[in-house]
Amino acid sequence: MTQPPYGPPQPPYGGQPPYGGQPPYGGQPPYGGQPPYGTQPPYGTQPPYGTQPPYGTQPPYGTQPPYGTQPPYGGPQGPYGPPPKKSVLPWIIGGLVLLLSLGALGLFLVLNDDEPTPVATTLTTQQTLPTSETEETTEESTEETTESAEETSEELNFAESPETAQALIDLMAAGDYAGGYATLTPDLQAEFADPQAFADELFRTLGATAISSAAVSDAYGHGNHDDIILDVQTDTGSTELLLAVTEEAGVLKVFDFS
Predict the structure, then answer these.
(1) Rounded to an integer, what distance in angstroms lies between the CA atom of residue 137 and that of residue 139?
(2) Are 233 and 147 contacting, i.e. CB atoms less than 8 angstroms apart?
(3) Tens digits of per-residue pLDDT, 148-166?
(4) 165, CA 20 to 30 Å: which among 117, 150, 215, 247?
(5) What does the pLDDT look like over 72-123, one tens digit per residue?
C-alpha cells in the first residue's frame, strides 16, 4: 500500500524553480536588490561628508570637553592628600655637628694661645741662667783680678813660712799624720774628719803613697800670705807641692795645698 509523503509537499531544494524555469540572464534583479550597474546616482549626489552621524554617535571632533575635565584614568578619584611634612631631624643633626666643630676649633685656638706662655717662661729662665753664670764668672774674674792685683813678691810676708811648710811635709813623710794635721788652720782641718783623712787627700794630690824626702824650691809673698813650693820625692817619682802659709792668732798655719 502506498502512503502519502510525510508532511506537506515541499518545494524543490532551494525554493528555486527547476532548471530551465529561471528568467534569462539579465532579467534577474541584481545581487542585493540594488539596481544594475550604471543606474546608481552619479558620484557627487551622495550626502556631503559630515552629515552622516559620527561613528558610535559621539559628538564630532572638537566638541569634546576641554583637557583636564575628563575623569582620570580608572574612574573618578578624590583629590590628592596633603604632601608629607619634611623631617627636621637632619637640620638638628647638622646644627649639633656645626656646634661641636666650632667648639673644637675654639678649644684648639685657646690651647695654642696658652702654649706660648710656658715657652716664653722657659726662654726667660734659659736667658736668666746665662746671666747668673755670667755673674759667677764675673765674680771669679774679679777674684782672680784681685789676686792678680796682689802681685807676688820675692819678699815674704812671714820669714818663717818656708820652715812651717817644711815641718808639715817632714811630719807626713815620717808618718806623724796627727802632727802634720796640727799645722793646718782650723778651717782647713774642718774639711777632713781626722788626720788619716787629711793624709789620704795629701798623698792623692802627690799621686803617691809614701814620701822619702822634700826640699823648698821656691818661696814668695802673695798678698797677705806666702806661697811655698817644695820638691817632693815619693815612691812614684819627683813632684812639686805648693803650701799656702798664713798667720792666725800669731801662729803660722798652712791653710791650703795643691
Answers:
(1) 5
(2) no
(3) 445 677 799 999 999 999 9
(4) 150
(5) 555 555 555 666 667 778 888 988 999 899 988 888 888 876 555 544 444 4
CB 184 within 8 A of CB 248: no
Summarize the confidence of residues 228-237 as an average pLDDT. 96
pLDDT (tens digit, 9 = 90+) per residue, 193-219? 999 999 999 999 999 999 999 999 999
HSE-CB of 79 using CA atoms within 13 angstroms: 3
146 torsion bin: left (phi>0), alpha (psi -120 to 50), beta (else): alpha
CB of 244 closer than 8 Å to CB of 230? no
Q: How far apart are CA 166 and CA 226, in angstroms?
A: 13
- Edge-to-edge strand ranges of the sheet holding 211-222: 152-153, 211-222, 225-234, 237-248, 251-257
Query: Can you give the pLDDT at residue 87?
Result: 76
Look at residues 149, 182, 165, 148 and name the one whose alpha carbon lies nearest to residue 242. Answer: 165
How is residue 64 written as a grid cell?
Answer: 569634546
Map out the domains of the chain with their CATH numbers: 155-257 (3.10.450.100)
